[in-house]
Amino acid sequence: MIYEIRTYSLVPGSLAEVEKRFGEAYEYRKKYSEMAAFWHTDVGPLNEIIHVWPYQDLAERTRIRAQATANETNWPPKIGEFIRTQQSEILIPFPFSPLLRPGKLGPIYEMRIYTIKPGTLPEIRKAWEAKLPERIKLSPLAVAGSVELGEVNRFIHIWPYTSFEQRAAIRAQAVQLGIWPPRTSELLLTQANKIMVPAAFSPLQ
Hints:
Layout (H helix, E strand, L loop, with lengths): L1 E9 L4 H15 L7 E7 L4 E8 L2 H11 L14 E11 L14 E9 L4 H15 L7 E7 L4 E8 L2 H14 L10 E11 L7
Antiparallel strand pairs: 1-3, 1-4, 2-3, 2-8, 4-6, 5-7, 5-8, 6-7
């Protein structure tokens, strides 16, 4: 299983129209494959939409995208006039990570993006595997994995919360109990995060 994470930066003030057009076009696109989630940013880099597409492998991605775009009348959505930048990354979930499934986990999602020192991914993955079982007793993890194609030496993890207050309380509790985060800070080069909320048509709410 792989996930393609597509991040589009939008012209300010265009989000409502973009989501309307995207949601309408998705009714056609999901005949070929359904996306895992669609969010827009609420805190962090503003005016972004993030849509996540699961595929078995890169070959399936190529095949399905070709089928879906064969009739450009229906896909991609007609939002080009509102897009400033586009970014695509292929994420490979860690073996112990949950997979993104339709349902309600949020409605607040935190995406955390870490750049790591080259060659340190196996050590980070091992530390996460050891600590994660205790952490997810406090609140679930949506997905965590490494970037295979895109900006290399990164891994991404996404956490759902029911509210900003729950997020703050859970994170404080995890630190107080000494169960999180894993001791990998010396392996990290940069850290960034964004708070996201799902669109009405997102399978993951």
